Amino acid sequence: MQSENDSRRRLGNWMPGAEDKSAAFRAEIAAKAQQRAKHTALSSVVQDLGKLIDHDPVLRMNLSRAIDEALGMGKRLGYSNIEELLVIIDYLTTFSPPFDEDAPVATPLNTVLDWPMCMPSGYAVFRDSVFNAQLRRVLNTWCAFLSGPRSRVWLTTETGGWFSPAALDKLGMDDYVHDRARPYWGFDSWNAFFTRRLRPGARPVEGRDDPAVIVNACEASPFDVRENVRLVDRFWIKSQPYSLKEMLTSSDEALARTFVGGTVYQGYLSAFNYHRWHAPVDGRVSEAYNVDGTYFSDAEAQGADPGGLNDSQGYTTAVAARAIIVIESDNPAIGKVACVFVGMAEVSSCQVCVRPGDDVRKGDELGWFQYGGSTYCMIFRAGVIDRFVPRPPWHDDVPPLKVNAALAYCKSQLHRANAESR
Q1: What angle (nearest 5°) sits at the alpha carbon of residue 387, between those of residues 412 and 414?
Q2: Over 80: is that where the pLDDT of 379 sits?
Q3: Mean pLDDT of the chain, nearest integer
Q4: For residue 303, what are the CA distances in angstroms to 59, 110, 229?
Q5: Measuring CA to CA, which residue among 80, 66, 64 is closest to residue 123?
């Protein structure tokens, strides 16, 4: 009999919704990894991860316990100890995800770690800063593979290919720059395909000349809107309130204080979405920086649930690897807007392509997610937002709000001045 957790839906189609399909993927990958290990030594980066675990008795104890706890619950992991897990991780550094409409596995390492990461002993492992630093090296190695020509194995029209008829129905490739007459449709790597560019005019900027219109910075489905956010809050509890100081992690606390009492909008990206970021307002970039963090940490408040990372999206804004871009709007009624682009799971890097001092117009490119499950926030000062276009209640697996489409409308300067004088 399936439990509620076994059949839980996943946001964004990054992994199968049914646990039996995830377990089947883990078994298949484990068999291929073990076969490869017979004639291929572990890569140096995975050997270094193994040495870190082996030389840290607390880390080794907690990871071993997390695996045992998951197995004790009857979960089919595809491995029974750390050594077998390392073999699978090594195999995945040369893995290109195929397209599968029924059981997508766009984040394979997340699927492999699904259960240990939400076990009682697993929470400490996946928050350990040294462990995450070594994981980042592993993910960067995988990212390098995905940026090379050998990663294009599934850029085909065959079954399982990202140009198959079923995949094209999902992707809407006519909106993107490509050349079907060229091999691999002109993409020189998996990452080039994943970060594909839009054709000119494919996402027109709504309200281009209306300073009251704030446009969507990412092609993402609405996840949450919170008002009256605090400088510091308990982001790890069930309700996962947004904590500005942790989200922005700036050496200058004045930046976070700018948004106290303001509003946070959060959206999540699908595996099939466009993954570049665009400016939500006209203005000047005042801050642009990356923050190191976790990759597979979720909140205990979600319980022993393989979908916990999806449901911990508020929590991840305070702890996960992310890029932060702050724009000083040309419209004084808006002022500063902070965009927080969060790399969940296998996102190896959040690439920022603007710098402080750059002038941007609504719709200009700001950067992109290199790969993996992703979520993002926009933070507004108190009293700025008149109304959002997306409205609650929020539902999972809803179509994304297009990038450059109207996200919100700001209050007029007169309205703000009257509110601030009360």
Answers
A1: 15
A2: yes
A3: 85
A4: 21, 17, 25
A5: 66
pLDDT at 298 over 50: yes
* pTM for this entry: 0.85
Cα three-residue angle 316-319-322, rounded to 5 degrees: 80
- Domains assigned to the chain: 5-145 (no CATH), 150-194 (no CATH), 213-421 (2.70.70.10)
- By three-state DSSP, how is residue 66 classified? helix
- For residues 106 and 167, give the distance between their C-alpha atoms in angstroms, rounded to a whole number: 13
User: Per residue in 116-156, pLDDT tens?
Assistant: 988 889 988 988 889 988 998 998 899 899 999 999 999 99
Alpha helices in 114-217 (DSSP H): 122-125, 129-146, 165-171, 190-194
Q: CB under 8 Å to 348, separation ≥6 — which residues?
A: 136, 139, 140, 142, 143, 370, 371, 372
- Per-residue pLDDT tens over the stretch 80-92: 999 999 999 999 9
- Owner of token pair 């597979």: 296
Secondary structure (DSSP) of 300-363: GGG-S-TTHHHHTHHHHHHHB-EEEEEEEESSTTT-EEEEEEEE-TT---EEE---TT-EE-TT
* Partner residues linked to 221 by β-bridges: 268
User: Cα 393 from chain centroid?
Assistant: 22
Q: How far is CA 319 from CA 1, 52, 138, 348, in A?
A: 35, 22, 19, 15
Other CB atoms within 10 Å distance of the CB of residue 192: 18
Cα–Cα distance measured from residue 97 to residue 160, given in angstroms and rounded to the nearest whole number:
9
- pLDDT recorded at residue 414: 45
129 and 368 Cβ atoms separated by less than 8 Å? no
Phi and psi angles of residue 385, each rounded to the nearest 5 degrees, phi first: -85, 125
Q: Report residue 173: phi and psi, to 5°.
A: -60, -20
What is the pLDDT at residue 114? 86
Spatial separation of the C-alpha atoms in residues 292 and 311, rounded to whole Å: 21
